Amino acid sequence: MDGYLPRIVDEELDELSEGLAALSIEGPRGVGKTATAQRRSTTFYALDDPGQRQLLSADPGRLDRAPAPVLIDEWQRCPVVWDWVRRSVDRDPSPGRFLLTGSATPVTEPTHSGAGRIVRVRMRPMSLSERMPGTTAVSVRDLLSGRLGPVAGQSDIALPDYTEELLRSGFPAIRKLPERARRAQLDGYLAGIVEHDFPEQGHLVRRPAMLRAWLTAYAAATATTASYSVILDAATAGDGDKPAKTTTIRYRDVLSQIWLLDPVPGWLPSRSSLSRLAQAPKHHLADPALAARLLGATAGSLLSGDDPRSAVPRNGTLLGALFESLVALNLRVYSQAAEASVHHLRTRNGDHEVDFIIERDDHRVVAAEVKLSASITDSDVVHLRWLRNAIGSDLLDALVIYTGRYAYRREDGIAVVPAALLGP
Question: What's the total number of domains in the chain?
Answer without folding.
Answer: 2
